[in-house]
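Weekly sync, protein design subgroup
Attendees: M.S., D.O., the rotation student, P.L. (late)

Item 1: inverse folding check
M.S. brought a backbone from last month's batch and wanted to see whether the design step gives back something sensible before we order anything. D.O. pointed out we never logged the input encoding, so this time it goes straight into the notes. Structure tokens as presented (129 positions):
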């Protein structure tokens, strides 16, 4: 996974594809490995973190019926928190664009997802003056 920091988009795409491919045969192991890697590399640049998060998303979507319920719940929670953190960090420089995207998740008459509200709140806190 260290190769995600390679600046060549083809290398980044190959890493993403490899994680997704491995996730087809061993989804829980790949999800746990990605989760552990992200925890150990909390200073990983956001573009590189996104590659791993997207691979995790694909593995979860493609294998949700194969995952143990407790693993799925934990991985999804961790993935959502990490994605929220990425949006908040990107919002440090591109607050208007991130806010536009987050606001699209608020629909009239529909209770927003917990992480949408949390992301919105964290954006407000981190960009307050």
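Designed sequence read out in the meeting:
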């Amino acid at each position: 996974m260290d190769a995600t920091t390679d600046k060549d988009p083809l290398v980044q795409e190959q890493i993403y594809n490899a994680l997704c491919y491995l996730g087809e045969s061993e989804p829980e192991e790949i999800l746990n490995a990605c989760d552990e890697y992200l925890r150990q590399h909390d200073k990983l640049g956001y573009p590189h973190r996104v590659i791993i998060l997207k691979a995790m998303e694909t593995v979860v979507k493609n294998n949700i019926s194969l995952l143990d319920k407790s693993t799925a719940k934990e991985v999804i929670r961790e993935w959502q928190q990490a994605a929220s953190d990425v949006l908040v960090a990107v919002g440090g420089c591109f607050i208007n664009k991130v806010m536009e995207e987050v606001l699209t998740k608020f629909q009239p008459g529909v209770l927003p997802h917990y992480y949408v509200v949390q992301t919105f709140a964290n954006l407000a806190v981190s960009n307050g003056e």
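Discussion: The chain is about 75% helix and 0% strand. Residues 59 and 72 are 11 Å apart (CA to CA).
Action: P.L. to compare against the previous round before Friday.
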